[in-house]
């Protein structure tokens, strides 16, 4: 099973690429299988920056897939129009496409790069939360510290914790502290420029924060603390030369000389001598030959000048080069840009540690540096943890529905074909390849409704006029129902109902499944199926389930629509049918038989019915993970389960909940759906030879699409019993 972990930056300009590469480097020689999912492109100035998660950074690592990223302007557009759920859906689809090409072993880690916070997208924290929730990902915060203060850092971490602590579904693994002890001149994230870097590298060792104290007192583990280092971040002269597209006058040691500061020199020779800091790039006008010669002489007099940048069109003649020969031979790089000093200064002011740190060489140095400052204990825990997650998130469930539906490629009849929501859902389903949808209704009316609602009817959709086909099913309906008093006149009348007509088409094998209910009650939708479609050979009854799309997982509720008061044998059958359905749709069945009592704490006929049903189900299916009676809270809440049923294999982690009767099941389903404001799919009928599924009359287009998908899948599995 894959284990998603999202890195969430909590400050502007935190570069996750360095952290990600450090983690990759740290686990490179372990048996941990890891891939990276980086869906965002937050760069707005491609001229001055490389792609921040460009695949070139991952060239030393296998199994790294960079998806087609989402530009920041697209994110902004969706958010402005209130389409945050559309954005999350795009990310989820991209994630599962990525996941499909990666490992599926239980030790597979998927490292997700969260959205970077900037002044123009302050909504990143909310988006990252939704991503973590949708993908059921563990969270690692990446933060920076503005002051050399233990108290400030502790308060910062506490604030991050409190902002997410009220999110019950969030799993926080820890925090990585980046750029610790940053020198004062680099604290302003928008001005990390090399023109301000002087002798600050030595200051990184001063006023160190007491990490042992912080780790012991913090709300969650510190997974890494990475000191700021000019040694790691400094570019070489060749990096700046390439960035400025400069002409090289003397190459010297251009590929190895590090630039730790940039000095703009324009005064007198005497006044510029104070600017000769160690490992500086000196910027002078090409017509200031006095400064050029002075600096060349200084470079061979034990003053460590990294390089010289000339600005302007003036050409350095051979006589000047001859004077500077010794400095050139000693390895002093000199390069020139044609811009004049003012324009050049603007370009140089754009030179920041942020800009240049995309350099491959810097990245290679950075990844080892970051790796050395990540805690080995955390890496060991990742390695040793046998990750188990019985939950499936709503996004993963819906993604699985679509994938399985595409594989099934079934024909689904939609009797309410003149309803705009149905037309739209059918078109989207056809476009996504989920099913071949057949709309029952007047072709002219359907096309007119589509035009009125700006719906483009997909060319793969079939439209069938019910007036032209009703006569075809009269005799068959009479044959099926003659023992119930059916005759030709009654059959003609009943076939005027499009749901009955669609059910007959299903019975005759002309379609593979039926979806209705957007305009009809559950009883009106299901009744024809109960009358016409027979039980599966191995099913003693027909039951129903709802897929409850809770914020952090999908639960199955059964039976909430069909069986009023099942006896123990019937209740056991409902549990087994529901477990089979769970497996079909990618949910690991852990069945809780719900009652008002847990274990042996209560007695009475209602409790005994549930206890007996549990025993029957266990005898029929020894491999089925089932327990009961269990109260609802003990079934799904770990802390309650530990107190009430510590030895249960189901309590606290149930995925399928079977209610003792229709009164309890339907009431609970409605209460949870309405109170928690969640979506549900269903009821889906079980135990029938062919699938018929009901829609809520308030169903959204999205709900209809997924019901079409699950009906298509169900039709492929009608002959398969897994328990």
UniProtKB/TrEMBL annotation:
- The UniProt record lists the DRTGG domain at 239-349
Q: In which pathway does it act?
A: Metabolic intermediate biosynthesis; acetyl-CoA biosynthesis; acetyl-CoA from acetate: step 2/2
Domain of life, per the record? Answer: Bacteria
GO-annotated molecular function: phosphate acetyltransferase activity
Gene3D superfamilies per record: 3.40.50.10950, HprK N-terminal domain-like (3.40.1390.20), Isocitrate/Isopropylmalate dehydrogenase-like (3.40.50.10750)
Question: What keywords does the record list, in alphabetical order?
Answer: Acyltransferase, Cytoplasm, Transferase
EC no. given is 2.3.1.8
A single BP term in Gene Ontology: acetyl-CoA biosynthetic process
Q: Does the keyword ATP-binding apply?
A: no
| Catalytic activity of the protein | acetyl-CoA + phosphate = acetyl phosphate + CoA
Q: Where is the Phosphate acetyl/butaryl transferase domain?
A: 397-711
Identify the GO cellular component terms for this protein: cytoplasm
**Keyword Cytoplasm on entry:** yes
Localization per record:
Cytoplasm
Q: What is known of its domains?
A: The N-terminal region seems to be important for proper quaternary structure. The C-terminal region contains the substrate-binding site.
What the protein does? Involved in acetate metabolism.
Assembly and binders: Homohexamer.
Show the NCBIfam families listed in the entry: PRK05632.1 (NF004167), PRK09653.1 (NF007233), pta (TIGR00651)
- Family, per the entry? In the N-terminal section; belongs to the CobB/CobQ family. In the C-terminal section; belongs to the phosphate acetyltransferase and butyryltransferase family.
Q: What is this protein called?
A: Phosphate acetyltransferase
Organism name: Candidatus Erwinia haradaeae
């Amino acid at each position: 099973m894959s284990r998603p972990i999202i890195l969430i930056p909590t400050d502007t300009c935190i570069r996750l690429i360095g952290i990600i590469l450090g983690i990759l480097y740290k686990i490179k020689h372990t048996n941990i299988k890891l891939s990276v999912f980086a869906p965002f492109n937050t760069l707005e100035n491609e001229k001055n920056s490389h792609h921040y998660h460009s695949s070139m950074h991952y060239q030393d690592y296998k199994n790294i897939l960079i998806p087609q990223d989402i530009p920041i302007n697209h994110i902004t557009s969706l958010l402005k129009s209130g389409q945050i759920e559309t954005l999350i859906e795009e990310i989820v689809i991209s994630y599962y496409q990525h996941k499909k090409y990666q490992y599926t072993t239980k030790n597979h880690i998927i490292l997700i790069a969260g959205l970077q916070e900037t002044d123009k997208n302050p909504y990143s924290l909310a988006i990252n939360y939704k991503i973590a929730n949708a993908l059921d990902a563990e969270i690692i915060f990446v933060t920076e510290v503005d002051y050399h203060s233990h108290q400030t850092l502790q308060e910062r971490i506490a604030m991050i914790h409190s902002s997410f602590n009220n999110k019950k579904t969030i799993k926080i693994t820890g925090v990585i502290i980046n750029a610790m002890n940053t020198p004062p001149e680099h604290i302003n994230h928008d001005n990390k420029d090399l023109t301000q870097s002087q002798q600050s590298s030595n200051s990184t060792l001063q006023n160190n924060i007491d990490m042992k104290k912080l780790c012991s007192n913090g709300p969650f583990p510190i997974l890494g603390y990475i000191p700021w280092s000019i040694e790691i971040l400094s570019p070489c002269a060749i990096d700046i030369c390439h960035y400025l597209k400069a002409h090289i006058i003397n190459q010297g040691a251009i590929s190895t000389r590090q630039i730790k500061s940039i000095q703009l020199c324009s005064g007198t020779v005497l006044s510029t001598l104070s600017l000769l800091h160690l490992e500086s790039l000196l910027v002078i006008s090409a017509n200031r030959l006095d400064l050029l010669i002075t600096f060349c002489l200084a470079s061979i007099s034990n003053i460590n000048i990294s390089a010289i940048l000339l600005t302007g069109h003036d050409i350095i003649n051979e006589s000047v080069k001859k004077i500077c020969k010794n400095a050139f031979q000693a390895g002093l790089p000199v390069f020139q840009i044609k811009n004049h000093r003012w324009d050049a200064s603007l370009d140089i002011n754009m030179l920041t540690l942020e800009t240049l740190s995309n350099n491959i060489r810097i990245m290679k140095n950075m990844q080892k540096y970051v790796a050395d400052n990540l805690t080995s204990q955390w890496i060991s825990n990742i390695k040793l943890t046998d990750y188990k997650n019985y939950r499936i998130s709503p996004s993963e469930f819906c993604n699985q529905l679509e994938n399985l539906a595409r594989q099934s490629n079934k024909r689904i009849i939609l009797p309410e074909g003149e309803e705009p929501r149905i037309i739209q859902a059918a078109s989207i389903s056809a476009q996504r390849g989920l099913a071949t949808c057949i709309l029952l209704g007047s072709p002219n009316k359907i096309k007119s409704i589509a035009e009125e609602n700006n719906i483009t009817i997909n060319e793969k959709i079939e439209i069938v006029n019910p007036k032209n086909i009703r006569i075809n099913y009269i005799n068959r309906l009479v044959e099926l129902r003659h023992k119930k008093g059916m005759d030709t006149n009654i059959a003609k009348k009943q076939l005027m109902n499009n749901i009955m007509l669609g059910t007959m088409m299903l019975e005759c094998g002309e379609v593979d499944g039926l979806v209705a209910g957007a305009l009809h009650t559950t009883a009106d939708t299901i009744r024809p199926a109960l009358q016409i479609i027979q039980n599966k050979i191995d099913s003693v009854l027909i039951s129903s389930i709802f897929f409850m799309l809770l914020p952090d997982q999908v639960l199955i509720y059964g039976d909430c629509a069909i069986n009023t008061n099942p006896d123990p044998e019937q209740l056991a059958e409902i549990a087994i049918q529901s477990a089979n359905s769970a497996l079909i749709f990618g949910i690991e069945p852990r069945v809780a038989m719900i009652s008002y009592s847990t274990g042996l704490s209560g007695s009475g006929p209602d409790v005994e019915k549930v206890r007996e049903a549990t025993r029957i189900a266990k005898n029929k299916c020894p491999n089925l993970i089932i327990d009961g009676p269990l109260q609802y809270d003990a079934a799904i809440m770990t802390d309650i389960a530990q107190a009430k049923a510590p030895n249960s294999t189901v309590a606290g982690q149930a995925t399928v909940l079977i209610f003792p009767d229709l009164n309890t099941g339907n009431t609970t389903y409605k209460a949870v759906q309405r109170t928690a404001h969640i979506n549900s799919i269903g009821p889906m009928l079980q135990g029938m030879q062919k699938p018929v599924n009901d829609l809520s009359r308030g169903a959204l287009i999205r709900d209809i699409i997924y019901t079409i998908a699950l009906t298509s899948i169900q039709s492929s599995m009608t002959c398969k019993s897994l328990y």
